[in-house]
Amino acid sequence: DAGVTQSPTHLIKTRGQQVTLRCSPKSGHDTVSWYQQALGQGPQFIFQYYEEEERQRGNFPDRFSGHQFPNYSSELNVNALLLGDSALYLCASSWGDRSTEAFFGQGTRLTVV
Amino acid sequence: GDSVTQMEGPVTLSEEAFLTINCTYTATGYPSLFWYVQYPGEGLQLLLKATKADDKGSNKGFEATYRKETTSFHLEKGSVQVSDSAVYFCALTHPSGNTPLVFGKGTRLSVIA
Predict the structure, then answer these.
(1) Residue B84 above 90 pLDDT?
(2) Which element (helix H / strand E) includes A75?
(3) Of A74, A103, B18, B111, which has fewest CB within 10 angstroms of its CB?
(4) In this predicted structure, what is the pLDDT of residue A101?
């Protein structure tokens, strides 16, 4: 049983560029949440997708957007990249719109130069 | 809003030493509490959880008890191993609502042989 898979594992982008990160949830899960983990910090909630809609959003600017597909996989898009967007981006999946049994992927390490 | 405060690391222990990592929280109502572990280069793994006051979560020799009166969820292990070296995150969520996980900043543990 595949767990949560994220791609790519590492990515280097230039300031001002746009990036798309991808996540496939654990089998049987229909909800995907995205978190940003800056170096030395705990993960910060970006947003959650359930039934192909954004259900909740954390304190992140509109440059951060997402999408959920009918097969429950999800994308995180970040436009106009800033140096401060460098972080580990974690995807978590769960069943229903509750976080109590969230499973995390290994993350995508984004470096903005 | 909700918040989680963990003891600052890094914590360095010799093998077989006793471990305590303190965690306190601020939240309304009765949140569910979690400890996640992050090994080098990996995502988050759920270590243990507790969903109501006085519950004790346990896994792999780690334990934590949900103390409502002191709003705490301290992580303990009687005898640490080198393989326990990782970053540990305390987190909470509200299971009765659609709320994301709120994490502490993490505590890095290094166990030396």
Answers:
(1) yes
(2) strand A74-78
(3) B18
(4) 76
For residue B97, the distance in angstroms to the closest alpha carbon of chain A comes to: 7
Largest CA distance in chain B: 44
Q: What is the pLDDT of residue A2?
A: 73
pLDDT category at B99 given cuts 50, 70, 90 is: confident
For B100, the closest of A40, A58, A103 (CB atoms) is: A58
Q: Which two tokens stand for residue B63?
A: 């334990």
Interface test with chain A among B36, B46, B98, B107, by most A beta carbons within 10 Å: B98
pLDDT 10s digits, B25-64: 999 888 999 999 999 888 899 999 999 999 999 999 999 9
Among A residues 29-88, those touching chain B with beta carbons less than 8 Å apart: 33, 35, 40-45, 48, 55-56, 58
Long-range contacts of B49-53 (CB under 8 A, 24+ apart): B49/A100, B51/A100, B51/B95
Per 3-state DSSP, what percentage of chain A is helix, strand, and coil (rounded to 5)? Answer: 5, 50, 45
**Predicted local confidence at residue B70, as pLDDT:** 96
